[in-house]
Amino acid sequence: MLSEHKSPDLSRIGEVVEATSISFTVHCYELHLGAPLGALIKTDTPEIFAVVNNVSTSSIDPTRRPVARGQDEKDSDSVYLHNPQLKKLLKTEIHALIVGHKDNNNLHQYLPALPPRIHAFAHHCNIDDLRKFTQKLGFLPLLLEGPPTLADEITSAFLRQAALTHPDPDSFLFTSGQEVAQLLGNDLRRLNSLLRRLK
Amino acid sequence: MSIDIHKLQFNLDALASRLKGQASQRRNRLQQAIRQMGYLNGQVINEKRMRGKFAWPIPTFPSNPTSHYATMLPPQDYSVLATDGSRIDIDDELPVKCALLNISKVLLNYGFTPNAELSSESQFFTEDDQLFFTDTSSTRSQILDKPLLGLKSSVEELVSLAELAENSNSKVPTLALVDGSLILWGQTIQAYPDYISQILINETFLPALDKLKKITSSRPLILAGYISLPASTGVADGLRLSICPYEPVSCDYHCGHLERGKRECDSIGGFLDRDLFSHILQPGQRSDLFVSTSSIVREYYGGHAISFYYLNTGEEIARIEVPKWIAENENLLNLSHSLILDQCEKGLGYPVALMEAHEQAVIPQHDRELFRQMIEETLEKEHVSVYTSQKTRSKKLRSL
């Protein structure tokens, strides 16, 4: 059971509880919080970068399911106020696709040799991290992999957030669109759909 | 081979038909019993019981046994403590004797600063002084068999509850809940020599009750045992005394030769207490207090004598047991009523603190298998031979 004590590092989201070569899952310290879809996060030691492609909240014990408790409550906050055990029995997890890593302070936009360790801390990336990471777009093939609808949704969300960290967001989005066009040139329908999301 | 489904269905159909035939008679008897309870003077029952020899153990009745009380609104700020236990019994199939108790502790704070603490702690029994109860005045000893480990679990749950209460500095009303009876099972414990009762009750259980009572003297702590779907018949059996024509009552002497159903008192007998109170209590109401006359309580409990009331939680009739020092404090007794009801509401029919205590204590099947596996592997690593009975082996192999 995770402690309710505040992490000394406010950028810390949680800890890695599952890891593969292409993705990892973070158990978030705070219920219903973590990182939004499309956000760039990183682990520590080694620094591995990943983009959030799923956020879920569920029971810690898979054999127990939440049930409706708020029929007589005025709002959902009251459900938690009047059932303090719920915060100890539910968990929020984020699943993220690995898009790069640092090695001797060099940033690489390909998969690391090894996934992060279990219990590695996961952190938010700040504006500076995001801008530096997206100076190059070599990570795009990794993001576009997988079921198209979800991959496109995540890619466009990530690029929209990254654009805001660049001095000229429109220019960044235009450049990103060109790069996406090269990768999805054979699938015009998908390409158009994704480009529309970049506006 | 699987069971004979057709034969089973035939028997079930016959059973259902018989029950249906008896339903109308049962309804009439129940209505008669409830009417009789309305006329009852509890003091008369108590005097008759004390003068005679009655076949059924019945509690001390309040003067009006059909009295009922509505609940007050619970305080906004309150705490609940609960414990529960789960166990792995000694397995004769293993080459070493060992057992395990897993005791959970739950603390829930409601109100201005809601909070929850859920945990459990295991106790492993592997040494002789843990696996055997020894009579210090003789050479007798008793192994921690299944029923005894169950008793020990009940005792340890109360000990943990007392520790939880001591460590909680809460000044708000605090409900300390036990799952089940506060009376250690009379028949179970009486099957063992007296020194077992001495160890379990006098040396462990009663000191925990003393601790809880002491805490209650300085802040509002309410100890209660919650019994879901109680099978007790004490009150229902006490009704029989009210229509017994004999004075003094002596069941064996006057009616020992009669078949069941032919005795005078059978016209309102055969019910559970909850059958009666489901017709007396509205949702949210509790009954008046009855006092247990269990031989274990009379002999050992002293100032912790147990009283009980029935409570209509809205979903069921539950039996709530409280020690004397709660029963005699009207404020704490009323708090037990309102807090338990609130817990049942939050737990969708069962006290949520007890539900969470159970979840923390339960040992899943895969953990039980892992426990066995770890013992076997550890022994094999130390080159201690591991065996199993041929019976168990044959069950696993199921060879043709």
Report on the architecture of this protein.
- The complex is a heterodimer of chains A (199) and B (400).
- With 199 residues, chain A is an alpha+beta fold.
- Chain A folds into 2 domains: 1-125, no CATH class; 127-199, no CATH class.
- Helix content of chain A is 32%, strand content 26%.
- Chain A is built from 7 helices and 7 strands, in the order E-E-E-E-H-H-E-E-E-H-H-H-H-H.
- Chain A has helices at residues 76-81, 86-89, 127-133, 140-144, 148-163, 169-183, 188-197; strands at residues 12-19, 23-28, 40-43, 48-59, 90-103, 106-108, 121-124.
- In chain A, strands 1-2-5-4-3-7 form a 6-stranded antiparallel barrel.
- In chain A, strand 3 and strand 4 form a beta hairpin.
- The termini of chain A are far apart.
- Residues 1-5 of chain A have low confidence and may be disordered.
- Chain B has a domain at 68-233 and 271-365: archaeoglobus fulgidus dsm 4304 fold, CATH 3.30.2170.
- Chain B is α+β, with helices and mostly antiparallel strands.
- Chain B is built from 15 helices and 12 strands.
- Chain B is globular and about 75 Å long.
- In chain B, the strands form 3 sheets. In chain B, strands 4-3-2-7-8-12-11-10 form an 8-stranded mixed β-sheet.
- In chain B, strand 11 (306-312) and strand 12 (317-323) form a beta hairpin.
Unreliable residue stretches of chain B: none
- The largest beta-sheet of chain A arranges its strands as 1-2-5-4-3-7
What about the largest sheet of chain A? 6 strands, antiparallel, barrel
The CATH topology of the domain at 68-233 and 271-365 in chain B is what?
archaeoglobus fulgidus dsm 4304 fold
Order of helices and strands of chain A: EEEEHHEEEHHHHH
The CATH C-level class name of the domain at 68-233 and 271-365 in chain B:
Alpha Beta
Residues in helices of chain A, as a percent range: 25-40%
Globally, the shape of chain A reads globular
Q: Based on helices, strands and strand pairing, what is the structural class of chain A?
A: alpha+beta
